[in-house]
Amino acid sequence: MGCPFRLNLHFNAMHKKDSSPGASASRRASSYALPMQISGLAVFLDIDGTLLDIASTPEAVVVPPCIPVALKRMSERLDGALALVTGRPIEFVDRLFPDAELAVSGLHGAEWRDGSGNVGRVKTTSEFNAAKLRLRQEVGRWPGVVFEDKGAAFAAHYRLAPEREMPLRDLMRDFAEAVGSSWVLQEGKQVLELRPRGRDKGDALLAFMEAEPFAGRQPLAIGDDVTDETMFIAANRLGGLSVRVGEDRRQSCARYCVASPSDVRAWIERASA
Question: Which of 139, 167, 195 is the last residue of a domain?
């Protein structure tokens, strides 16, 4: 069965193709023990649901005190070849992990900061900004729906109001049409988001892998949601490792799985010690 996700991955001749069965196939992942020997790896980590437990609202996430230090230590052991690849904006990531000085791809690959500190961002339009304001006003009248402003993206979380899912879908589809083809409607775990079109987490991984300190290493991609599937496929195609977090039995392009974010955090602490 082919992977049931639309992909926007761009490979060139320098990328090692993985032609093994199931390289991009959707299947059930096998249980996996994350490697303690990390030399030679390039590590790519999602945040929500992977590194941190999912919270009831975006601002309610909790960062265990040991994790920023452990991430920085792991990055140093990898000579900087560790990147956070997330739907969050870079500014929010820096608030979560102050002083960690990590490479980051935010907004599902639409903005990035490389290992040298160079930053790239997407510019918004007047139509996009108007839609963002309208959504903020609309969901303010819907108890339990949480608006999230990500700069060049915006989202509505309905985890606390699942009965709002269908009217929220209709509203977000209207906004997707209004803002034009430069943005795309993205679904996640009880969240709907308008994000920039044209890049995804798989593109982010590939871009990192083309430059130092990531180039020449084996990628290890760890994530939990549908937005991480392109990252799994990119890692697989480069002969790397792909690991889904969580015990749900859905089909995934990840080859391996671990049970929970606590397993990922425990691995980071042990492997970076």
Answer: 195
Beta bridge partners of 27: 252
Question: Residues of 66-89 as b/e, b for ≥16 C-beta within 10 angstroms?
Answer: ebbebbbbbbebbebbbbbbbbbb
Looking at the structure, tell me whether residues 59 and 100 fall in a common domain.
Answer: yes
Annotated active-site residue in 18, 46, 114, 228: 46
Instruction: Based on the residue annotation, tell me whether 94 is a catalytic residue of this protein.
Output: no
Q: What is the mean pLDDT of residues 51-62?
A: 91
pTM (two decimals): 0.81
pLDDT at 68 over 60: yes
Range of the domain at 82: 30-121+199-271
Establish if 234 belongs to a structural domain. yes
Domain shared by 170 and 213, yes or no? no
Cα 106 to Cα 204: distance, rounded to the nearest angstrom:
9
